[in-house]
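=== Discrete structure encoding ===
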Amino acid sequence: MNFDESKSSLAHITEDGTRAQTVKEHLEGTAQLSAEFAKVFGCEEWGYCCGMLHDIGKYSDAFQKHIRGAECRVDHATAGAQLCRDLKGLYVLLAYCIAGHHAGLPDTGEISDDGRCKSMMGRLKKKIEPYDKFRNEIEIPSLKTLPFNSGYRGGEKDSAFIFSMLIRMLFSGLVDADYLDTEKFMQQGNVVRNKGQSMEWLLKKAMQYVNGWLQTSETDTVNGRRTKILKKCIRDGEKDKDLFCLTVPTGGGKTIASLLFSLVHAQKHHMDRIIYVIPYTSIIEQNAQVFREILGDENVLENHCNVEYQNSEELKPMQLAAENWDKPIIVTTNVQFFESLFSNKSSKCRKLHNIANSVIIFDEAQMLPLDYLKPCVAVIEELIRHYECSAVLCTATQPALQPFFTERMKAIELCSSVDQQFSFFKRTNIHNLNTISEQKLVDMISKENQTLCILNTRDRVNEIYQKVRGEGVYYLSTYMYPAHRHRVISEIKERLLENKKCIVISTSLVEAGVDFDFKSVYRELAGLDSIIQAAGRCNREGKRAAEESLVYIFQIEGTKSLPGQNKQIEAAKYVLETEDDITSQKAIRKYFETLYYFQGEGLDKKRILEQFHHNIYPFATVAKEFKLIEQNTKSIFISKEEEAEAILREIQQKGATKELMRKAGKYVVNVYENLYRRLEDAGMLLPISEENNEDFFMLRDVELYTWECGLQVREIDAGGNALFW
């Protein structure tokens, strides 16, 4: 076929110019996929209509000249949006999806916006090339069915937020369908997709793994209690889709219990996937490894920046799965999950429709972001009510979230006799030392044989470490790159097992995901959840009497207030003053209720929910404002080991590919803007590659990084010299 002379309206031409896909073919292919995706949440005809209208602008003569080689830019996405405006009624919601399927979901904007504005109002006034030829080939699909037929709350005040979620989900399905149909054409149908095994297969595999445990009839042993919790979760997996809590004490086996509940639940209700949402990378890596061992590598997707695949054959299908979460088990971060749900970008939103009909486990649920708690809870409720999801709030310190859900959504507890279980698993005695001097703290921990001291700031960790340092004394902080930190943690675990002297001075990074078992723990006053997490590093295996396993809470004289921690500390103080047992469920509930009261309107500090009102959809604005990590960080590569040097050479030769950047992550320290500026001004940093010259640097002087304490820059003098701690 001579494409220059062809009268057919073309959507795509292959790079070698030998094959073409017509607009009609592309619209039909995309519509079918988009309908399939939307069918999961009862909006099949909405998805189909979205797919059929998204590229009708490609029928314009201008676009047809462009695709045949003419050098001109053509906006083909606005046409479908303007058609939806003209069709009125329900079609108007689709205008956002269609207008944004390349550039991202736009803000509604103002009525006064003209055609130069990127808002929806502006796009609808924009002058575009005539595209009427579509009427010769395309019949506009009917759109008659209201969304959420069984549970739509259209008359309620939050209807704008509800519709914003619908738009995002349809947008996600459209973007994914558009990509997949184009990819299928370009590769002549040779698209490699390994979606993993069925839920039935995965459940069978998991049941084989726990079968031995299920045979026990013990009730008064640790394993017996874990089995009791596990059996209850397996039974409760048969319950209807809903909101659940799994409140399990440290050591109670919540990872396996939540997995079995999810697999039974997913198989019972023909659900598509299980999504673990986890706050810490260390826990993600740990849990994902457990899941891979039980269910196989091909069924588990680790979706965070540090994940590394061994070869290009493994990398490519996993990269594809990471774009749209097309695996049965997804392990991701709070940041990735929630920021994607409030994003407007096609790349981030592509996976959203695959959240529908999933079991979502919020591991360490107390770590849901405090500044955005209300919008996060609102989106969880929407996923349950309108997108066929079940959610599990999984933690040892259950946050008091019930008041933030609507009255009709009551969480169901999966762990029976919670107070009794916590009493059984209690392995420590907690003592409040109140305010002590720094020297008193140093004296106390110096006399210990095996103890962990957790402090609130890196500066204080350094101060205490320098006064205690010696044989068997270790320093831990995020200013040690992961490969180095993991080696130190392994050495600590060995000394603990061998009953050798082992004193660890650390930031809070050890509170979750690190299975230490110390004879005593010292924890600087922090949030109650942090204190309880820290206590979980003492007598973790229950081999010693609780009376012998002491956890000390303290404040250091002259400590300044800590931005970002003040409310947590004040709420913890209140509970310490009013409750005899701060680990009880009553005390934990009081802590979170107090914390949320102190936080007040700051539970939605950017007024995210308020911005959706009266058919106003500020998609682009909210995407910019919803940032769980407010401060930008810069990655500093430490080339101090042979493997690190080899990775650096490869990056400099081949460029900063995704695969190489993942490998480099093992040797990276992330620093906030203020330290980055000081290092840069002193000439201590070099860009690692041209592609990442703004965010990725190497440390010029590796002597600034020590095997004892990692990156140890305190200040930089006037001559540009970095000073060590």
The longest strand covers residues 429-436.
